[in-house]
Give the backbone structure.
Amino acid sequence: MASKLAISHLQKFYGSVEAVRDVSFEVDEGEIFGLLGPNGAGKTSAVECIIGLRQPDSGSIQVCGIDAISQPQRVKEHVGVALQSTALQDKITPREALKLFGSFYRKQIDADELIKWFSLEEKADASFDSLSGGQRQRLALAMAFVNDPEVIFLDEPTTGLDPQSRRDLHSAILDLKRDGRTVLLTTHYIEEAHQLCDRIAIVDHGKVIAAGKPDELIASAQTTPRVSVRTGAPLELSRLRSIPGVEHAEVEGNTARITTAQISQTVTELFRLLESQGIELLDLHIHRPSLEDVFIELTGQEVRDQANSRA
């Protein structure tokens, strides 16, 4: 499969601060590739270098087979970009904005088609200042498509959206994949990356610290699965610790928490223990490793949500 993006040894400094540190990755045609990491990790700086908003200090960038550093104008004809926030004149309408931005390109998609595609019919002729956050984000996506791009860059597209608007935007992004588009998505929402992306690069302190398919990254986690069980009567700690595979167990009232490397065998033996003692099972949860566990293992910290940090 052909690579639509090929980034090699990318570096970007802001004074003495190295915001992007030797970043390399490739994005294949027709896939959604995610840059996952906390705000301030270097995701946005990397994207701004790739799309030509900032000049990298070193490295190479190929976009659709074009050298993006030496031929930035050619690249702009092939890409669409939706940044973290879109600022337009208060009284401009979505229809007017799409026609205006479309006029900047040799190839363009009709504004009415984009309005329908991104479900903006009801607000097509309303002023920008009357649009909700979700509607503004859909307009930003529509504007990223005015030139019918091969590659779309979405930088933290759902930040600040309510759950319903975020879900709607997720559907729109998945539609892009079904349409055969290539998408580079930056996010600090772990669930979002897992749900949307074919492959992920985890970025922290300007470096790619892990990359792969979400399930492959989870499978590589060292975190041991955990079982949480709530019962009608307290369980004996010594009996829990004697169950095969149990590495750690603790009991607090009628709730027991077990760490085990052998989930199936442990749960089977746990049911036998409950039956032999006549104790009612009220609730049971199995907690398997997640992308968040992978991130914490690699960085030693939870994903930060620092809205005012520079990314």
In short: Residues 304-311 have pLDDT under 50 and may be disordered. The first strand starts at residue 3 and ends at 14.
